[in-house]
Amino acid sequence: MPNELASRLEPLVAEAVTTAGFDLDSLEVQQAGRRQLVKVVVDSDDGIGLDEVAEVSRKVSAVLDENEHVLASAYTLEVTSPGLDRPLTQPRHWRRAKFRLVRITPAEGAEYVARVGHAGQEAARVLAGGSLQDVAYASVAKAVVEIEFKQPPAEDLKLLEEDASGQSTAAGQTEPKEESK
C-alpha cells in the first residue's frame, strides 16, 4: 500500500518541488502507527539550505493538504536533502559531485577512488591515478562521495577544468567534448 501511495503522490509532490526550483530526489511513504510518514528528499545543483527546505516543506504540505483524499489518513511530512552517503545513481548526482572524490565500485574490476570532472548523460570524466578516464554510468555497481578534510590539489582541479573546457590534458591530448544535457 505505501508504495502504491507513493506512486500516486509522486507527480503531485514532484510538481510542488519543481515549482520551488528543486529536484525531487526520492519520495517514500511509510506506515507509522495510525499515521503515514511522507519522506521527501530534494536537491539542486547549488545544494539546498535550511530556508529552502522550509519553503519546499510548505509547498509540499499545501499540495498534500489539497489532495488529502489520496492519503486518506493523518500524515507526518519530512523534507530533507540527501546525505553524503547517497549513492551516485543518476547523471545529476555525478554533476553535483564535480571536483569531489568518489569511491567507485565497477560492475567488473577493483574498487578505486577518483575525482569527478565533467558529467554527461552517459558517462563522467574522472581523474584516477593521475590520468583522465571516462566512466560509463552503466558500468558502475556503486559510487559514493568520499569525505575530504583538506582542499583538493590545485593541479587536479586545473586538469579537470581544462579537460571540461576542451583544452589540452596532462598528456597533451585534446579531445572534443560532447555536451549533452
TrEMBL record:
Name of the protein: Ribosome maturation factor RimP
Record InterPro entries: Ribosome_maturation_RimP, RimP_N, RimP_N_sf
Annotated family: Belongs to the RimP family.
Protein's cellular compartments: Cytoplasm
Gene: rimP
Record-linked Gene3D superfamilies: RimP-like superfamily, N-terminal
Any single biological process term in GO: translation
Region (Disordered): 156-181
Purpose of the protein: Required for maturation of 30S ribosomal subunits.
Entry keywords, A to Z: Cytoplasm, Ribosome biogenesis
Pfam families referenced in this protein's UniProt entry, alphabetically: RimP_N
One GO cellular component term noted in the UniProt record for this chain: cytosol
Domain Ribosome maturation factor RimP N-terminal: 12-85
Species of the source: Amycolatopsis saalfeldensis
